[in-house]
From TrEMBL:
Name the UniProt record assigns to this protein: NADH:ubiquinone oxidoreductase intermediate-associated protein 30 domain-containing protein
Keyword Iron: no
Disordered: annotated span: 265-307
MF annotations from Gene Ontology: unfolded protein binding
Gene Ontology annotations for the cellular component aspect, listed alphabetically: mitochondrion
Keywords: Chaperone, Mitochondrion
Family of the protein in this entry: Belongs to the CIA30 family.
Highest taxon in the source lineage: Eukaryota
Lineage, opening ranks: Eukaryota, Fungi, Dikarya, Ascomycota, Pezizomycotina
Source organism of this protein record: Cyphellophora europaea (strain CBS 101466) (Phialophora europaea)
Length: 307
């Protein structure tokens, strides 16, 4: 039964074709000049659509007998304000740290959170967001300055694992004085900086987030400070554009630089113009070591002059 296989291996030119195919694959693996990153944002949650807010679910300490409250509601755009208020989802409520009298096992309360419901299923299986090609999670928010956390759940082995990162804001209410109402801002969080937790505790050993299979995204408040809270969220998306509107972070950023344009200014026309400018540039052959200097040989380079 091995005869057909042996005849194929012994056929004229088999090993030559095989070696050429492996050589071609090696050239593709090493030739990294053509690798680029997505420039267009990858939308995940757009709260300009009123239907999006109805797709969110809230969680509070009421599940263990607490009395904290939370709700989400859609707020339409308001063009009469300066600057204009975008359409957004308002996450608001009240935090209470009072312990339930009939639950002696509950030693801690005072939290609230929201997240999207499951994305659903198709004939091919469960739906996920795939953010593996992106460096940042971007959030357009207006914060009251409390300590919120961004939560990401993936299709991991442990269902209760949550990847978390603090939502740091610069222009929240009170940032520039007691009378400062705060303003809208875009917060960028590096995806590789999320920390895996379970029931609020950091888990060890840490493992990289499964970016290809993101199930839910949400925001939680666990500072256990009694009182009202209010957070506006206009949208959440994945992106490779940094604060300057430039692509950075991985191989190929040299070929994708969009200049100093900020995210809202990156249009299809400008991207096409930038691509045409790159196309007209003189071709410059780059070596593997020029593109990936971290793989360069260590030590002193041999001299090219003869004694």
């Amino acid at each position: 039964m091995f005869a057909p296989t042996l005849r194929r291996y012994a056929a004229p030119g088999f090993w030559k074709k095989t070696s050429e195919r492996f050589a071609q694959q090696a050239r593709v693996a090493i030739n990294l000049e053509g690798l680029t990153l997505p420039i267009k944002p990858y939308p995940m949650l757009d709260f300009a659509d009123p239907e999006t807010s109805t797709w969110m679910k809230t969680m509070t300490d009421k599940q263990v007998g607490g009395i904290s409250t939370a709700e989400v509601q859609h707020v339409p755009a308001n063009v009469s304000t300066n600057p204009h208020t975008p359409a957004h989802m308002l996450f608001q409520g009240n935090i209470s740290t009072k312990l339930p009298e009939n639950r002696l096992d509950v030693l801690r309360t005072g939290y609230a959170a929201w997240r999207n419901q499951d994305l659903g299923n198709t004939l091919f299986g469960e739906l996920f967001w795939n953010v593996d090609s992106y460096m940042y999670l971007a959030l357009r928010v207006k914060s009251d300055g409390r300590k919120y956390f961004v939560n990401i759940q993936t299709d991991s082995i442990v269902d209760t694992d949550i990847h978390q990162h603090r939502l740091y804001t610069k222009h929240h209410a009170g940032a520039e004085g007691p009378s400062d109402p705060g303003r809208w801002e875009t917060v960028l969080v590096k995806l590789h900086e999320f920390v895996r937790t379970n029931h609020g505790l950091v888990t060890e050993p840490q493992s990289e987030m499964l970016r290809q299979k993101v199930k839910t995204v949400g925001i939680g408040l666990t500072d256990r400070t009694p009182g009202p809270f209010k957070l506006g969220i206009a949208g959440i998306w994945a992106t490779n554009l940094n604060e300057r509107g430039q692509v950075d972070g991985r191989t190929g950023w040299q070929d994708c630089d969009t200049g100093s344009a900020r995210l809202p200014e990156v249009t299809e026309e400008k991207l096409a113009q930038k691509a045409e400018e790159r196309r007209l540039l003189p071709k410059e052959e780059k070596s593997f070591r020029d593109i990936m200097p971290q793989f360069a040989r260590s030590g002193k380079e041999p001299s090219s002059t003869k004694d």
